[in-house]
Amino acid sequence: MLRTLYRPSVSTSSLVVRAFSISAVHRFVPPVSEIPKDVLREVKSSQPAPMLSEFMQPKKLNTEDLENMDIGIGKHRQPNTFSDKLAYRMVKALRVLPDTYFGKDHYMRAVMLETVAAVPGMVGGMLRHMKSLRNMSEDNGWIHHLLHEAENERMHLMTWMKCLQPSLFNRLLVLGVQGVFFNAYFWLYVFSPKTAHRMCGYLEEEAVISYTHFLEDIDKGIISNGPAPKVAIEYYNLHPHASIRDVVLAVRADEALHRDANHHFSDRIAAHREDILADIKAQLLQEQIQKEVNAKATMST
């Protein structure tokens, strides 16, 4: 009977203290110091820069300029070695999911593509940064380009996010795919950077194909050709009345650059010629010598 009627007593003072401590935690906001002047200067002056020289010209680009860019439509690196064939088959297998799930939903496909495409540059840049620290030696030209590539792909994503709002399910799908791909690509780059860059090259080949299909559906009237987002107009230096079609052309040109760059990086690793700066210096020296020879020939005549 006593056991049934007994209720454990709770100290009122302990409840008050606990409630006070919880509310105090929620109310307390730590002070934020003034932004250091050099941090303020850097943040104010920094802005994403495009990768292709065509987008850095003073002239605003129109549709004709974008269509005349030579990006090598249909360009394909034939897989020769076992690692090349493995990379190619992995990419072809990865394409099955977006082809099946997204179909003609090019905007959502582009969002998924860019969340994945922004991973290789960041992973490669990070791992080469750590390698440079471990070896206490210069990177010789890789890190900056790879991180710029990752930023470029992120800007693609920011552009397409102005055109749609993914559902909660699609956001969760992106989260899962990105998590799996990041870890898989990380370990692939650790064990075989040559294969990792080759795989990225093939991924970009598929990206060029996907954006070409995007263009075709715009031209057929399946997708409306609305105005380009402001972020894309500013980033790509497009004319003020640029359209979605112009943005697709610009993004496709970026993907073609990443395709060529990653295949080139894979070739350099295979040839044990990873010092890009040394080759650039040799090329500049050769050009200088040629200029001097031409100048002497002109003077003698």
Question: What would a concise description of this structure say?
Answer:
Helices cover 70% and strands 0% of the residues.
Task: Pick out its properties.
mainly alpha, 12 helices, Ferritin, 301 residues, disordered N terminus, globular
The unreliable regions are: 1-6
| Main sheet characteristics | none
Strand content: under 5%
Oligomeric state of shown chains = single chain
CATH architectural arrangement of the domain at 61-70 and 81-277: Up-down Bundle
Binding site for Fe cation 2: 153, 204, 255, 258
Enzyme class: oxidoreductase
Pfam families: AOX (PF01786)
GO molecular function: alternative oxidase activity; metal ion binding
Describe the structure.
- By secondary structure, the chain is mainly alpha-helical.
- The chain has a domain at 61-70 and 81-277: Alternative oxidase (Ferritin), CATH 1.20.1260.
- Helices cover 70% and strands 0% of the residues.
- The longest helix has 30 residues, at 106-135.
- The radius of gyration is 27 Å and the shape is globular.
- The relative contact order is 0.13.
Helix-strand blueprint:
Elements: H1 2-5, H2 12-27, H3 37-45, H4 63-67, H5 82-101, H6 106-135, H7 143-160, H8 168-191, H9 193-219, H10 230-236, H11 244-270, H12 276-300
Helix pairs in contact: 5-9, 6-7, 6-8, 6-9, 7-10, 8-9, 9-11
Binding site for Fe cation 1: 114, 153, 156, 255
Family: Belongs to the alternative oxidase family.
GO molecular function: alternative oxidase activity; metal ion binding
